[in-house]
Amino acid sequence: MNISKTYTKTDKENTELKTLFYYDLGGFNYFTGKEEGRGYYILIQPVEISRNENGGVSCETFTAFKGIKSLLTECKRKSKKMQRIAEMRLLDKRQNLLQYVADKNNLIIQ
């Protein structure tokens, strides 16, 4: 599974919005109790990052159901063509979803 990951800084110290772009096989989601489609997704969630001052290991923590997951492109199998389509949709949706998650968690994007 190829995952593209980015972070967006917020006004709260050590808290960032983590964005994941990935392909998922879909199926039944036991956390939500819903069937999910196969395809390319975006997931945005607030994470608290604890960094070691000596440049060592960083620790990332999150709370369930504080973010959002959205299907960008449903497809029967992973392909370069469908990935490009999903990436174009990602560019259109990402900023609105970042703002939604920030508002939901009382954060200000910087």
Describe the protein in words:
- By secondary structure, the chain is of the alpha+beta class.
- It has one domain.
- Helix content is 23%, strand content 41%.
- The chain contains one helix and seven strands; from the N terminus they run βββββββα.
- The strands form two sheets. Strands 1, 2, 5, 6 and 7 form a five-stranded antiparallel beta sheet that branches. Strands 3-4 form a two-stranded antiparallel sheet.
- β5 and β6 form a beta hairpin.
- The longest helix has 25 residues.
- 15% of the residues are buried.
Labels describing this entry:
alpha+beta, globular, 1 helix, two-stranded antiparallel ribbon, 110 residues, 5-stranded antiparallel beta sheet
Short description:
The protein is an alpha+beta fold. Helix content is 23%, strand content 41%. It has one domain.
